[in-house]
Amino acid sequence: MMFDRRTLMKGAAATLVAAPALAQDWRASTMRFIPQANLSSLDPIWTTATVTNNHGYYVYDTLYAADMAFKAQPQMAEGHEVLDNGLRWRIKLRAGLKFHDGETVRSQDCIASIMRWTQRDSFGQLVGRVIDSTQVVDDRTFDIKLKRPFPLLLDALGKPDTPAFIMPERHAKTEATKQVTEMVGSGPYRFVAGEYNSGSRVVYEKFDGYVPRSEPASRGAGGKVAYFPRIEWHILPDPSTAANAIIRGEMDWWERPPADLQPLLARSRDITREVTDPSGRVAIMRLNHLQAPFNNPKVRAAVRMAAIQEDYMRATQGDDTSAWQVCRNLWPKGTPYYSGEQDDLMPQSIDKAKAALQASGYNGEKVVIINPTDFPDIGPLGQVTADILKRVGLNVELAETDWGTVIQRRGSREPVDKGGWSIFHTTGPAPGWGTPATSLLVRGQGARGWFGWWDSPKAEALTEEWLYAPDEAGQQKAARELGRLALEEVATVPLGQFTLRTAYRKTLTGMPHGSAPYPWSVRRA
Q1: Distance, CA of 377 to CA of 260 (rounded, Å)
Q2: What burial class does residue 206 get, using C-beta atoms within 10 Å of its C-beta: 0-12 exposed, 13-18 middle, 19+ buried?
Q3: Is 83 helix (H, G, I), strand (E, B) or coil?
Q4: Which residue from 352, 413, 425, 41 is spatially nearest to 199, judged by alpha carbons?
Q5: For residue 14, what pLDDT is reported?
Q6: Nearest to 422 by CA among 350, 490, 366, 495
Q7: Residue 185 pLDDT more than 60?
Q8: H/E element, 262
Q9: For 98-145, how does the pLDDT look when each residue is reduced to its tens digit (9 = 90+)?
């Protein structure tokens, strides 16, 4: 039965008191999870979509992984040696690693996976620039030879978002611009292709061949112990339906309940609400630099001036200001290079934005905002932008579809009349966007970069300066200059910073903390 949100609110008390008994047969073996969005793309190297990254942690494993202190720890790797004055890294795999098809994980698989990742990921591309060659030593040992020392290699391979997931060599040799469609990894769960129905359900089954590490789990590192034989993702784009399902016990865990339903969930004695990622997330607007009107930096600057962050945060996160804060800086608050608000670049003034647009040479070109209807943390961002930019004087079209279509369309570099786009919005983890190496928001890689394709050789030079700075003072200087440059040229428009409360039934225990809703450690109480 479907409920609109108002009906659910009115009937909440009755629902909480008198939910009918449910069949118990699935609970012993299955956890039911409501993800943040539909899983429309399966390849976590091909796309930066957070939901696909979360899926990647089920199916794949990584050579190294960041712990809760963001320190890289061995994961698939048994260990490593740094040789030849930092120009050669020798990595050895743990014994007994197997893929879901029963094949042994080999050095060749790792090398091919790393090289494909270096073509797609922003940090990976920095790694790729310094790789001179790779060499198989034996089935469990391989070398990465560098043109110059790269001390952050392990941090790159194991970063929390879009790490170098290891897949079989035959898949890793897929052209980087094309998606891998067959899901075979060596992670704690295997993807059940026969039960995958995009927009409805995703199913994973415990991989009995997975041998966890002995250390306690910590973010993506340590022992990934899978307790549930089966995990089902149920795609419930209507928040009221999702709330009703978890209150009634038909679902176990809801990744991202929207702000307006949090009070309802808080009234249930059967539900725990918890901030499992205290670092928080950042909301952003991304503009297409290839096409008019945003190939004009003066038009981009007008948009930046109009972005009133409080409007965006209230639209997506509600009126509880303990859950969000403004951040007029492309380095999020709480990360090493945040240096205060840059109010001169973001006056948050419609009047100033109007004047800037009138002086920009804007010719009335259509601005198409591609926006999801099924993603409560993102959809309202696009709606706020459409309203603001119309008030500023831009010719705006709000093109609303499901999130999967947004993900597909944002890859188009065509003009808007041929299926292209002008603006999309998304959110990302504050720590993941906290350094020049990991942040997509400040990199000026042009055609090789993230959607929007900001091209800035100066930004790339500052990234290199940061990467090889001799001391912390040098890193601080380069990073702050880079953040300022990216905001001046409107590589990205920051829209605010927030934390999320996940919700789960109190019948679950061991809820993992970190940057993703990891499937390990959690079990029935």
Answers
A1: 11
A2: middle
A3: strand
A4: 41
A5: 39
A6: 366
A7: yes
A8: helix 262-266
A9: 999 999 999 999 999 999 999 999 999 999 999 999 999 999 999 999
Tokens of 305: 């001036």
| Integer Cα distance of 217 and 68 in angstroms | 9
Q: How far apart are CA 32 and CA 464, in angstroms?
A: 44
Distances (CA, A) of 375 to 49, 236, 295, 348, 440: 12, 10, 28, 25, 21
Cβ-contact 482, 463 below 8 angstroms: yes
Widest CA span in the chain: 70
What are the tokens at 196?
A: 């995958």
Positive or negative, the CA dihedral 483, 485, 488, 491 is: negative
For residue 155, which phi and psi values (nearest 5 degrees)?
-60, -35
3-state secondary structure (DSSP) of residue 468: coil
- Rounded Cα distance, 318 and 164, in Å: 36
E strand or H helix at 138, and its extent? strand 131-138
Question: How open is the CA angle 470-339-426, to the nearest 5 degrees?
Answer: 105
Reported as a single tens digit per residue, the pLDDT across 275-302 is 999 889 999 999 999 999 999 999 999 9
Residue with tokens 């963001």: 70
- Strand-pairing partners, residue 80, are 91
* Tokens standing for residue 456: 């800035």
Of 396, 387, 362, nearest in space to 308 by CA: 387
349, two tokens: 């003034």
Contact 106, 167 (CB under 8 A): no
Within its chain, how far is the Cα of 38 from the centroid?
14
Give residue 194's region: left, alpha or beta (phi > 0; psi -120 to 50): alpha
Calculate the average pLDDT of the chain: 94
Q: What is the pLDDT of residue 309?
A: 98
Cα-Cα-Cα-Cα dihedral sign, residues 382, 384, 389, 395? positive
pLDDT band at 24 (very low <50, low <70, confident <90, very high): low
Q: Is the pLDDT of residue 509 over 80?
A: yes
DSSP string, 287-347: E-SSSTTTTSHHHHHHHHHH--HHHHHHHHH-S-TTSEE---SSSPTTSTT-----TTT--
Mean per-residue pLDDT for 232-254? 97
Tokens of 483: 């953040």
pLDDT digits (tens, 9 = 90+) for 28-78: 899 999 999 999 999 999 999 999 999 999 999 999 999 999 999 999 999
197-202 long-range CB contacts below 8 Å, 24 or more apart? 198/38, 198/39, 198/40, 198/404, 199/38, 199/40, 199/235, 199/402, 199/404, 200/234, 200/235, 201/232, 201/233, 201/234, 201/235, 202/35, 202/39, 202/55, 202/232, 202/233, 202/235
What whole-number distance in Å separates Cα of residue 477 and Cα of residue 373?
Answer: 41
The gap from C-alpha 316 to its chain's centroid, in whole angstroms, comes to 17
Coil, strand or helix at 348: coil
For residue 282, give the nearest of 1, 53, 500, 525 by alpha carbon. Answer: 500
